Amino acid sequence: MISSEGSNAELRLRIYAEPGEEFNSKNLKVKTEVVMKNPHVKVEKMGLPVGVKPWEPTLDALRNDSRPFTDTKDLTLHLYTLPFPKGEQGDGGGGLTECLISDVLKHKILSVPGYGARVPKPAGTTYRVSEAAGKGLGVFATRDIQMGELIMAERPLMITPVVMPSRCTSELQGLSHNDFVQVKLHDAEKIFEWVVDRMTPENREALMALTNSHSLEGGGPIIGRVKTNGFGESEIVDGPGAECQYSVLCDALSRLNHSCSPNTFRKWCGASFSMQMRAARDIKKDEEITTHYVDILHPAKGRKGQLAVYAVKCTCVVCANPEISDPIRAKCLQHLQQIERQDWQRDFDVPTSTNPKPLLGNLDMYVKSGVETTDVYGYCLFMLMKMYAARGDIPTMRVYSEKYARWQSARTGLVIPQELIDKGFGMISVAEMVLRMKGKMKGKAKKI
Ligand SMILES: C[S@@+](CC[C@H](N)C(=O)[O-])C[C@H]1O[C@@H](n2cnc3c(N)ncnc32)[C@H](O)[C@@H]1O
């Protein structure tokens, strides 16, 4: 699973019925235990180990998609088709998602203000999927794309828990670690098959057409595809403590390859129940459109290890030259740690220095190093906007205000009014005051 948070909390949600009780929605119990997450497990063989009986859960236990109300405390997994309720709101034009989620998450999803909104469409065609040398397929720009532009918006094909739904662990006592994992993979594939069986034929075909980079690791074809293509999404979790994380599996978005200098931001939009991707910098026609699977500010060696989990051997220029790139990335990380402690996006105080050289130097470093998807880049644009306002240079202030607004739109998906951008997010009053003062010094007020 492609992590958005980098969290590797090893928790497992156990769905079970007491011995002798029927496995159905009324008597299912749920328990969270420390165990492995499906993206990181690997075994030599496939199928059940010798002597282990197949798990026979009943599908009815999970089939609850017609329940009108959700229990906000129920962490048991159920099958739902979203957007919900089907037929009343329709699919908002974006297609339907098959979900194996808890009521807690379903309640969260349905409570998002504006839930049921249409999935937005990019302006014209923005991308094609074609061969990416050494990486399988990839996504490429079909025209020049400006920073901030929406490139893709997609309703997921499927949302499934990161922890593997499987039989009660007590049944597996005495098994070797390898056999234990094999059973887990086998059980989980069975449950995932139910999810896939509920899909529309088009969605099922799209899912099975996705790449499986983990076909030799003992898991079934669905788990393999989830591991290869699923996104971790911070908003798609149970409860505030993220008791259970989920994997969000999309279609075209799954064709995005990893880059250590990515040119897009990925953002979940709860209202339209869609994953969206926007340009983090200007992208040229035919350029590959990329995302990041791991933290791009980590040193090359660390990234290599993390990327191996996703079956990625990155050969980009940043990875190929760690002696040059690592110190630069370390500097960027240091800058990030400095600004993380500040509420800089809401700080409209006039900067104490009006010398833009250090900031321009940093901006150049961020662009050359390709770290526009990190906050240091946005911070730099924001500070330059404020600094040029403090210098009374309205045209240059507007250049950075425009860039900062585009970057923020790409990052958050929010549309920033042009009037606000023209006014440098309010910094124009500072610029006007400075100009008036300069005018006074020369004996007359300058016209803006
Ligand atoms: C989410 S898929 C991306 C689309 C995929 N290339 C395809 O053909 O469908 C992830 C897989 O793509 C490949 N991949 C992604 N980024 C890569 C990169 N930077 N270098 C090499 N392979 C990459 C790896 O095989 C990885 O497991």
From TrEMBL:
Record's protein name: SET domain-containing protein
Naturally occurring in which organism (per UniProt): Cristinia sonorae
Domain of life the protein comes from: Eukaryota
InterPro entries: SET_dom (IPR001214), SET_dom_sf (IPR046341), SET_domain_protein (IPR053185)
All copies of domain SET, residue ranges: 123-294
PROSITE patterns linked: SET
